[in-house]
Design a protein that fits this description.
With 516 residues, the protein is α/β, with parallel strands linked by helices. Helix content is 32%, strand content 23%. It contains 15 helices and 24 strands. Strands 1, 2, 3, 4, 5, 6 and 19 form a seven-stranded mixed sheet that branches. A hairpin with a 2-residue loop joins β17 and β18. α3 packs parallel to α12, α5 packs across α6 and α5 runs parallel beside α9. The protein binds flavin-adenine dinucleotide and ligand NA7. Flavin-adenine dinucleotide binds next to α3, α4, α5, β4 and α12.
Length: 516
């Protein structure tokens, strides 16, 4: 064992895992580990566990810096702690509120129809679930013999990672044959007075101790719309501030329809508006000043909570990537089709890579496939095309493949046929729920069997509906096959098998009844 390695091992002799590190080092004297993963979120954990399953000696670093409001959490990354999971739970809580009112129409005797959720109880339940997932994750890592260090790792050079051990605060180093960067991102704050001191983000809302009350949600992307909708469903008063358009990057028609659905449900939008400052008033509430870029007028309003949902920044600042020769672009890491960075032996997966969808299943599959290529001789690359996604608003929006605009831009309007239709979910009739925004469309080639390029659906349980169609689309689904598929009645997913009206025909896509 080299003197340096001996020092490293003896300096940390009280550290349980150190013994194992020394053992590892003696079995391969060149590096302490085969793989060091920076980041224990969806991508990093999937990669680390798969690599360990392939027999590699793996160390995973994960560390969460508290938000400006002081929120922090455990291992598992964004999805588990402050993303998909708590978001889906709050979404479900808000849907249940709506269901209580529907239940009355269906004959249930619900004594108090002005039911209000107990925010603190909801937050407690959500946080308890998250803590159980954190625990299971740690047990899983231990079972798979992945070393876990709860510290921030950064590069000394391309094989050498430095970190601060806790609780001793001692600086330590570890070497690895390969390094995978999976550090993800965190919400951005606008550069205006009061933003960090007085505003919160999605990193705080799921553990927020006091009721959000009247909330200004700044940003009309996926996260902003979802947060506004669950807050509304839980009985609060969100307002969405939109800088330009809602849901940039998604199909325009579907996005506008979703915004109309939100407006109908009483969520106001402040269009073409940017925030200028946030101040705390004497009564404790927040005075937000803003500017409308169309009318060139200033305005202000008072809120209980301001939630920034203006996008996310990659966590590259503290990685010292220059020391390792890793190139970045717009704050993200540039990788090739094999997730290799500009530095040999260093790879990146998940939200931190440039130009790829920021979604958990993408991060997980890419991490897993990378581990198999590094340690099991696999050649399989991640396919980032046709990834399905869902916006969890009360009528959800889910899609897979191309938007209508992208299909037209790539193939020309004359080569694209769009089949569309409004529909009436059977379960909406008795409670007389609005069907105005229940709409779906298939974007297809115009010729031959009409290969489907994109499917879009607004309605109940959209994610569940589109997941199966996503597999079909990846297998080359055509309009011919879709229309030869017998539907399951009465479902809303079956509407895809009944699409008969093209946009080109100009016919009214509104159905006469549920079974027409
Ligand atoms: P992360 O999960 O962010 O994990 C990175 C980890 O690395 C973090 O724990 C971070 O603290 C840690 N870290 C950073 N730097 C270092 C360092 N130097 N050393 C050690 N550790 C470090 N996706 C979906 O598919 N469906 C959804 O419904 C969905 N909803 C979302 C809702 C919200 C509100 C948000 C914010 C995101 C949502 N996402 C959703 C996106 C999803 O959460 C991310 O795509 C996914 O978590 C990315 O995984 P990752 O491993 O790349 O990064
Ligand atoms: P997005 O999708 O990047 O959306 C950010 C939104 O915030 C978008 O509407 C932006 O408007 C708006 N924005 C950005 N900067 C500002 C400023 N400075 N002021 C006001 N509004 C602003 O981010 P999300 O967080 O919603 O989602 C990120 C990923 O997380 C998503 O892909 C999911 O996978 C999970 P713009 O359209 O740029 O004018």
């Amino acid at each position: 064992m080299s003197a340096m390695k001996f020092l490293r091992c003896s300096a940390s002799s009280t550290f349980r895992s150190t013994l194992r590190w020394c053992r590892h080092a003696s079995s391969n004297p060149r590096y302490d580990f085969d793989l060091v993963v920076l980041g224990g979120g969806s991508a990093g954990l999937a990669c680390a566990k798969e690599a360990a399953d392939c027999g590699a000696r793996v160390l995973c670093f994960d560390f969460v810096k508290p938000t400006p409001a002081g929120t922090k959490w455990g291992i598992g990354g964004t999805c588990v702690n402050v993303g998909c999971i708590p978001k889906k739970l709050m979404h479900q809580a808000s849907l249940l509120g709506e269901a209580v009112h529907e239940a009355v129409a269906y004959g249930w005797n619900v004594d108090d129809q002005n039911l209000r959720p107990d925010w603190r109880k909801l937050v407690r339940s959500v946080q308890n679930h998250i803590k159980s997932v954190n625990w299971v994750t740690r047990v899983d890592l231990r079972d798979k013999k992945v070393e876990y260090v709860n510290s921030m790792g950064s590069f000394l050079d391309s094989h050498n990672i430095e970190y601060v051990a806790r609780p001793s605060a001692e600086r330590r180093q570890v070497t690895s044959k390969f390094v995978v960067v999976a550090v993800g991102g965190r919400p951005r704050y606008p550069d205006i007075p009061g933003a960090q001191e007085l505003g919160i983000t999605s990193d705080d809302i799921f553990s927020y101790e006091r009721e959000p009350g009247r909330t200004l949600v700044v940003g009309a992307g996926y996260v902003g719309l979802e947060c506004a909708c669950f807050l509304k469903g839980l009985g609060y008063e969100p307002t969405v501030m939109v800088r330009s358009i809602v849901l940039r990057g998604f199909d325009r028609q579907m996005s506008e329809l979703l915004a109309a659905m939100m407006t109908d449900r009483g969520i106001p939008f402040l269009g073409t508006t940017i925030p200028k400052s946030v101040e705390r008033q004497a009564d404790g509430r927040l005075l937000v000043r803003y500017h409308n870029t169309t009318t060139q007028t200033d305005g202000s309003d008072v809120f209980d909570t301001v939630l920034w949902a203006i996008g996310r920044r990659g966590l590259i600042e503290e990685l010292n990537l220059e020391a390792a020769g890793v190139k970045t672009r717009n704050g993200k890491i540039v990788v090739d089709a094999a997730e290799a960075t500009s530095a040999a032996h260093i790879f990146a997966v998940g939200d931190i890579i440039y130009g790829r969808p920021e979604l958990t299943p993408v991060a997980i599959l890419a991490g897993r496939l990378l581990a198999r290529r590094l340690f099991a001789g696999s050649k399989q690359l991640m396919d980032y095309a046709d990834v399905a996604t869902t916006v969890f608003t009360p009528l959800e929006y889910s899609c897979v493949g191309m938007s209508e605009e992208t299909a037209i831009a790539l193939h020309g309007a004359e080569n694209i046929e769009v089949f569309h239709g409004y529909y009436k979910p059977t379960e909406f009739f008795i409670p007389q729920k609005s069907v105005r925004h229940c709409y779906l469309k298939a974007v297809a080639e115009i010729s031959g069997d009409q290969k489907i390029l994109g499917l879009h659906y607004i309605g109940p349980v959209a994610g569940e509906v589109i997941q199966g169609f996503a597999a079909a689309l990846k297998s080359g689904l055509t309009v011919k096959t879709l229309l030869n598929t017998v539907g399951i009645h009465p479902t809303t997913a079956e509407e895809f098998t009944r699409l008969s009206i093209t946009k080109r025909s100009g016919r009214d896509p509104t159905p006469a009844s549920c079974c027409s």
